[in-house]
Amino acid sequence: MEITDQDIAIFNHTLKSNSPYDFSEYSEKSLKRRIAKLLIDYHVDMSGLLRNIRENKNFVEQIIKDITVNTTELFRDPVLWQTLRYRILPEMKNCKTLNIWHAGCSTGQEVYSMLILLYETGLFDRAKVYATDINADVLDTAKTGVYKYRFNINYLDNFDKVLKENPFNFEEFNDVPYSKYITIDKNKDTLSFHKFLTEKPVYRKHDLVKDNNIFFVKFDIILCRNVIIYFNYKLQNKVVQFFHDNLHDNSLLILGKQESVRGNIALHFEKNNHVFQKTQNYNLNNSYV
Which of 9, 137, 132 lies closest to 62, judged by CA? Predict the structure, then answer.
């Protein structure tokens, strides 16, 4: 079934009128694909979908989980994590405290990637790590720190690239075993992060479209990777402005490979690869690239 512009408008109006959610500034192309899938998955037509939204709060919560994208992996895009490991985090060694926010953290593999790097660079005890998502189910998974081993086995290659290899010094090799941070049980098909990692982050449900800063702190690093790509231009700018307002001067916003900061707000960031530094008192290290 083809989803029309009118279908999108009616869907957004119905959802906004009958729930706390607002998808009116999401990418229409992406939203059309997801609504088409909802109709197939729930065996309804457009009128049936709208009726369920109006009458069933549990249905609304479920389709929000279906619509939002929850794809992540351990050390996704290793080059970024190598840069964090060997260039960015060492520059923060004199910080007394370090506030880090993973916005749109999904099932949490990115959070554990950061925690491992903080431990490797001696910043773990000084860091406060916050993680949010609109989907409560993925937050529950993130809190456990337990994942399918066979599904994630290939991502251990990323662990090796980031933790063992130093692309800025090819003579350096760090023999960091998985067992330092992870327990692997092949029989149970589980990959479990150690308790000292799972206890560290503060997880909260949060909607980037409408919620304020629920942690009441300013941040040194905000990671929001592969989230705003699903927003339209106006909402992207609104969210980036929100991040800017909640970063310390000279602090960092890290986006996904296909994302960028555009429009007037870009004047307030200095870009270096996919790391954006709030530009007041500009001090971005060119060696980040």
Answer: 137
Largest Cα span, the chain: 63
User: For tokens 């190598």, what's the residue?
Assistant: 82
Same domain, 86 and 50: no
User: Tokens at residue 252, please?
Assistant: 């960092």
How far is 11 from 14, CA to CA, in rounded Å?
A: 5
In a domain, 149, yes or no: yes
244-262: average pLDDT: 94
Domain ranges, residue 118: 78-288
Indicate whether 26 and 128 sit together in one domain. Answer: no
**Residue 258 pLDDT:** 87
Query: What does the block give as tokens for 276?
Result: 């954006």
pLDDT of residue 281: 47
Tokens of 32: 């059309």
- Average pLDDT (6-26) is 92
- Strand 146-148 relative to strand 275-278: parallel, antiparallel, unpaired? unpaired
According to DSSP, the residues that pair with 253 across neighbouring strands are 222, 276
SS3 148: strand
- pLDDT at position 180: 97
What pLDDT, on the 0 to 100 scale, is given for residue 173?
Answer: 86
DSSP letters along 42-90, please?
TT--HHHHHHHHHH-HHHHHHHHHHHS-----TTSSHHHHHHIIIIIGG
